[in-house]
Amino acid sequence: MNKFNKKIPYGVIERLPAYLNCLMQLKKESVTTVSSKRLGRLTGINAAQIRRDLIYFGKFGIRGVGYEVHTLIKKIQDILGADKFHNIVVIGAGNLGAAISNHDGLKNHGFIVKAIFDNNKEKVGREINDIEISDLSDLKKVINEEKIKIGILATPSEAARKSAKALIDEGVRVILNYTSIIIEAPKDVIVYNSDPVSDLLYTLYYFTSKKSM
Amino acid sequence: MNKFNKKIPYGVIERLPAYLNCLMQLKKESVTTVSSKRLGRLTGINAAQIRRDLIYFGKFGIRGVGYEVHTLIKKIQDILGADKFHNIVVIGAGNLGAAISNHDGLKNHGFIVKAIFDNNKEKVGREINDIEISDLSDLKKVINEEKIKIGILATPSEAARKSAKALIDEGVRVILNYTSIIIEAPKDVIVYNSDPVSDLLYTLYYFTSKKSM
DNA sequence: TAGATTGTTAATCGATTAACAATC
DNA sequence: TAGATTGTTAATCGATTAACAATC
Fold it and tell me: Is residue A100 a part of any domain in this protein?
């Protein structure tokens, strides 16, 4: 719900991170102002749609000028909740877990990796990106002490279901699932699945038979 | 376009990999038949929608019985083009590149990683998952020799734009972009962006203010 | 003022879902 | 046959986009 008390379409929320990402790159290039037209060209999204999306939340632009990059970043961060810090945990200290833990963007958007868990005793105690790898058996303790609500699942598939259950049982409410296991969760838990194979298969459809996108 | 010569909604194609993934898990559990109702419960997708999605491509079910798992897998693989082998390359031999190259699902769906590229001379010559790491300067040669049309971009952000350009210039037509860099590509190149931060930000919206999904 | 671009409407387009006849 | 579930329709719901007045 927004200030007009209207339900926001999913598509709108899905596009906001894309706008934000684009705006942050523009900011890095010292661009101060951007029109919906330009933002549209950069993100591949229709300019009218960008304006439509934004006015769900307020009038952030200046007619005849465009949007101030800095202001729009603040507004979108505020809408998404990315203006606050969020403690997260990563399950799995393999390549994937390490890649995610090292991701610059997390820090830039206020996500703080509080712990990385693994059940491999050899890895426990080592560090990834200055974060110590903890034993999976300490999951419960850490989640409760740090009041963690967001978890990233980056284990091998075999371990995924058990870890997901542990996260949910301890009160985690958002799970980013990077395994190909299907996670069954109660309605108040948000599970977001991300799988390179699904992404590839999706694009493959449009590729293999030269269907237009 | 399908056999009825009607345009297939994007949403349908997006859901097919989810069905496929679910079906393959069912097959592993030796389930032979599944109803749209059960598939719906497992994937979180409305049963009517599953049936609707599938008949865009043909009548794959048996009234009163459901869908034969094995048959439906074949059909969906055929639709997506996942019944053939596809050579791919991965750019970036860091944690992310390694994680993707090691991903079981790739092999299961016919994707063969032909080469992993990196510009770090120390990594070149080593192996990940039995695939030798090649020097980025050999990209052109490999892509042309192996007629690679699919590339996965898993480099640090700084290197992404240059690598993307190289891929496109040499004829790659599908790019899975795992960096947060925006890639500008001609219309006949399909770029699919996947970024853990965008995924987190999206879920964050529904989480932070207890908005219903 | 002239040019540019937002905010906003309204028309179009596309997606979802309930319902049920067909049929296994 | 009775029960189950698909295939299919049609109504509803939601998303996209062109167009343009408002206004910087």
Answer: yes
Q: Map residue A14 onto helix, strand or coil.
A: helix
Strands (E) in B27-170, as ranges, are 33-34, 61-62, 66-68, 86-91, 111-118, 127-128, 131-135, 150-153
Phi, psi (rounded to 5 degrees) for B168 = -60, -45
Chain B interface disruption, residue of A4, A204, A206, A212, most B CBs within 10 A? A204
Q: What is the pLDDT of residues A39-93, one digit of tens each?
A: 999 998 999 999 999 999 999 999 999 999 999 999 999 999 999 999 999 999 9
Nucleotide nearest to A35 (CA to C1'): C5
Structural domain count, chain A = 2
Q: Supply the range of the domain harboring residue B63.
A: 10-80
What is the helix (H) or strand (E) element at residue A171, kind and residue range?
A: none
A65: exposed, middle or buried (Cβ count in 10 Å: 0-12, 13-18, 19+): exposed
Name the DSSP class of A84. Answer: S
Residue after which a domain boundary falls, among A27, A52, A80: A80
Task: At B206, list the tokens.
Answer: 């529904």
Question: Hunting for tokens 């591949």 — which residue is that?
Answer: A44
The answer to whether A79 touches A64, Cβ cutoff 8 Å, is no
**Which of B 120-139 lie inside 8 A of A, CB atoms?**
none
Report how far Cα B167 is from the mean position of its chain's Cα atoms.
Answer: 18
Output the pTM of the full model.
0.90
CATH number at residue A100: 3.40.50.720
pLDDT per residue as tens digits for the range A104-160: 889 999 999 999 999 999 999 999 999 999 999 999 999 999 999 999 999 998 899
Q: How far apart are CA A48 and CA B185, in angstroms?
A: 22
CA dihedral A75, A45, B182, A56 (to 10 degrees): 10
Polymer length of chain B: 213
Place of tokens 């009607």: B6
* Bases of chain C with protein Cβ within 7 A: 3-10, 14-19, 22-24
Length of chain A measured in residues: 213
